[in-house]
């Protein structure tokens, strides 16, 4: 049984979503959704472009804001938008009067804009994670209650065709009740390393990869199980990147070890990165090609986390960021069978499969997925449709994620890194935040 609190809050969100959600109201009034965006780096540009190209009939970008005055100008050009640009968020909101504020800044700044936007009377759509520590989480939940605005968390990982299929099978009770989940995440020496080049390597910006990256996976599990997490135990180490190399530099462009470092990357060959980051370095000093061996790395690169859910199910989760290929191995173990999802990509190893095996029955590969083009295997356009084309449409799989889903997914990661800090101590979610 899902917890009453969990279901009630979700029902609240769904019920109110269609009527009071300002973007839905705008569409009902026959006008486009006025969207103001803060954070115009890589993901921000991706959002802007996608909205302009695919939702120009329902969305109008009315303002772009970033703390980096140069980057916001470059982003405007890359998006191809005619919207005014700002470095002052309050001014943008005041002048553009948006129906929706889209937050795509670095993770640790999300809460600032979520709260301020709601305080100024606006609904918010934020990139994941909702927050990077328990204090931010409490402040967001309190602000939502106080200002009565709607908050959506953009969990595109719910929208992968395989993730939706798993949800559907679970709702049909294809494997009975889920007793445990095994979830293994493999990030390779390109994707995994990218987090150690960028701001994610600093815990104060990302809340470690347990928050910045794994919040997707914790959210999937919370959603699949339809039961909130209650307790977390975590272990994590920095065993590969950071200090674990005899030589290092500040960033690749100036590195004297270019010839011998397997992680050397030449950002000058990427025109977009040169414009969006290198050309804007003068404003904030941020280097997109940071050395993966820098001594300031204060996150871990290998994680093992156990999570107990309210319904008694438990999750065993691992993430490793230095693998020879990308991949996931996920298993949901139920009273009547098991669902496996395995995906590998890299080093000539390319495969993916969802398998349903009922107890005492035959194992079958599930093939009836919807297929869709677009970012993250079609997950991004599926998410965008739900918000910008059909904001009031029925949502039988519960794909819409509000503040509580955002909070629980971040809190598993936060509890995980608190547990790591405390030498593997058990951390209870209810001791972190009053939900
Ligand atoms: N859902 C997904 O699949 C997905 C994919 C990539 C990134 N993301 C998320 O999107 C967000 C942005 O990531 P990114 O890859 O674009 O990073 P990025 O570094 O390219 O961009 C971040 C931007 O935020 C700006 N910024 C930093 N602090 C700010 C502040 N206090 N106020 C205003 N702007 C500020 C930076 O100047 C930069 O332009 C992150 O939260 C990340 O976790 C989600």
Description:
This protein folds into 2 domains: 4-157, Rossmann fold, CATH 3.40.50.720; 158-241 and 297-432, Dihydrodipicolinate Reductase, domain 2 (2-Layer Sandwich). 37% of the residues lie in helices and 23% in strands. The protein is built from 17 helices and 15 strands. The protein has helices at 4-20, 22-28, 42-54, 69-79, 89-96, 110-119, 134-147, 161-171, 191-197, 203-206, 208-212, 215-225, 271-276, 281-284, 379-388, 403-421, 429-432; strands at 33-38, 59-65, 85-86, 100-103, 123-127, 151-154, 178-188, 229-237, 302-309, 314-323, 326-334, 337-346, 349-358, 363-366, 427-428. Helix 3 packs parallel to helix 4 (69-79) and helix 8 (161-171) runs parallel beside helix 12 (215-225). The longest helix has 19 residues, at 403-421. It is globular. The protein starts with a helix and ends with a helix. Mean pLDDT is 94; it is low at 1-19. It binds nicotinamide-adenine-dinucleotide. Nicotinamide-adenine-dinucleotide binds next to helix 3.
């Amino acid at each position: 049984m899902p917890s009453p609190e969990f279901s009630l809050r979700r029902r609240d969100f769904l019920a109110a979503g269609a009527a009071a959600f300002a973007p839905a109201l705008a569409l009902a009034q026959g006008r486009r959704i006025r969207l103001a965006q803060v954070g115009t780096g890589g993901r921000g540009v991706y959002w802007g472009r996608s909205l302009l190209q695919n939702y120009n009939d329902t969305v109008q970008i009315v303002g772009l804001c970033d703390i980096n005055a140069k980057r916001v100008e470059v982003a405007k050009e890359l998006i191809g938008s005619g919207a005014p640009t700002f470095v002052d968020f309050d001014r943008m909101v005041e002048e553009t009067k948006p129906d929706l504020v889209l937050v795509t800044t670095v993770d640790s700044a999300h809460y600032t804009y979520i709260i301020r936007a709601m305080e100024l009377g606006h609904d918010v759509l934020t990139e994941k994670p909702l927050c990077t520590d328990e204090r931010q989480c409490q402040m967001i939940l309190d602000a939502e209650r106080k200002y009565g605005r709607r908050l959506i968390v953009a969990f595109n990982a719910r929208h992968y065709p395989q993730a939706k299929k798993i949800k559907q099978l679970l709702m049909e009770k294809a494997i009975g009740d889920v007793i445990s989940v095994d979830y293994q995440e493999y990030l390779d020496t390109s994707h995994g390393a990218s987090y150690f080049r960028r701001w994610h390597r600093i815990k104060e910006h990302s809340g470690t990869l347990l928050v910045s990256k794994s919040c997707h996976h914790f959210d999937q599990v919370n959603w699949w199980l339809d039961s909130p997490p209650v307790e977390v135990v975590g272990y994590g180490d920095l065993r590969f990147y950071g200090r674990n190399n005899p030589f290092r530099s500040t960033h690749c462009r100036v590195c004297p070890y270019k010839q011998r470092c397997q992680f050397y990357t030449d950002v000058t060959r990427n025109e977009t990165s040169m414009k969006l980051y290198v050309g804007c370095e003068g404003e904030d000093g941020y280097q997109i090609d940071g050395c993966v061996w820098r001594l300031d790395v204060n996150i871990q690169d290998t994680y093992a986390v156990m999570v107990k859910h309210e319904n008694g199910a438990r999750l065993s989760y691992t993430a490793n960021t230095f693998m020879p290929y990308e991949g996931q191995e996920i298993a949901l173990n139920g009273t009547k069978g098991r669902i496996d999802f395995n995906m590998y990509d890299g080093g000539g190893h390319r495969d993916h499969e969802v398998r349903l095996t009922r107890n005492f029955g035959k194992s079958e590969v599930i093939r009836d997925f919807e297929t869709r083009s677009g970012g993250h295997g079609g997950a991004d356009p599926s998410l965008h449709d739900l918000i910008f084309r059909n904001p009031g449409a029925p949502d039988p799989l519960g794909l819409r994620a509000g503040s509580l889903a955002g909070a629980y997914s971040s809190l598993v990661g936060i509890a995980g890194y608190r547990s790591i800090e405390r030498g593997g101590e058990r951390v209870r979610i209810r001791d972190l935040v009053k939900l």
